[in-house]
TrEMBL record:
Any one GO BP annotation for this protein: ectoine biosynthetic process
EC numbers for this chain: 4.2.1.108
Pathway membership, UniProt: Amine and polyamine biosynthesis; ectoine biosynthesis; L-ectoine from L-aspartate 4-semialdehyde: step 3/3
SUPFAM superfamilies, per the entry: RmlC-like cupins
Classification via HAMAP family: Ectoine_synth
Protein name: L-ectoine synthase
NCBIfam families, sorted: PRK13290.1 (NF009806)
Species assigned in the record: Gimesia chilikensis
Record-level Gene Ontology MF annotations: ectoine synthase activity
Gene from which this protein is expressed: ectC
Reactions performed catalytically: (2S)-4-acetamido-2-aminobutanoate = L-ectoine + H2O
A Pfam family annotated for this UniProt entry: Ectoine_synth
Uppermost EC category: lyase
C-alpha cells in the first residue's frame, strides 16, 4: 500500500512549479498504479494553453473559479468547486483562473514526473522506460 501526505511533497522533486501553475504529484508512473494523481494549483489571473496529445486527463475542481475553453472553436465551460471535466479526446484547451484554482488531476498513461510542456502545451508520449 502507498500512503503519502501532501505536506511531504511540498518543495520536493514531486512539486513542479511553472509560471501559471504548480503541480504536486501524489502518484507517478513509477508507482505502478496505471495512472498518475496530481494536486494542482492554477495561479489567479492566468491563462494556460494545454494540449495533452499523448495523455487523457480527468480534472475535479475543489477550490476557486475559472473556465476551460476548447480551442480553436469552443465551447467554454465555467469551473467551480464540484465541477469535473474529462479531456477524453486529447482536447486542446485554454485554462483560465479567475481566482486560484485547486484541482485534482488524473492522467492516463501516468506521467513520470519529468515531463515538460512543449510550446504547444504537450507532454511527450510515455516510453516503455518511463
Amino acid at each position: 500500500m502507498l500512503v503519502r501526505q501532501l505536506s511531504e511533497i511540498i518543495d520536493t522533486d514531486r512539486d513542479i512549479k511553472a509560471e501559471t501553475w504548480n503541480s504536486r504529484r501524489l502518484l507517478l508512473a513509477g508507482d505502478k498504479m496505471g495512472f498518475s494523481l496530481h494536486d494542482t494549483l492554477i495561479h489567479p489571473g492566468t491563462e494556460t494553453e494545454i494540449w495533452y496529445q499523448n495523455h487523457l486527463e480527468a480534472v475535479y475542481c475543489i477550490e476557486g473559479e475559472g473556465e476551460i475553453e476548447l480551442i480553436p472553436d469552443g465551447p467554454t465551460y465555467p469551473i467551480s468547486p464540484g465541477m469535473m471535466y474529462a479531456l477524453d479526446k486529447n482536447d486542446r484547451h485554454l485554462l483560465r483562473a479567475k481566482s486560484q484554482l485547486r484541482m485534482v488531476c488524473v492522467f492516463n498513461p501516468p506521467v513520470t514526473g519529468q515531463e515538460v510542456h512543449d510550446e504547444n502545451g504537450v507532454y511527450p508520449a510515455a516510453t516503455t522506460d518511463s
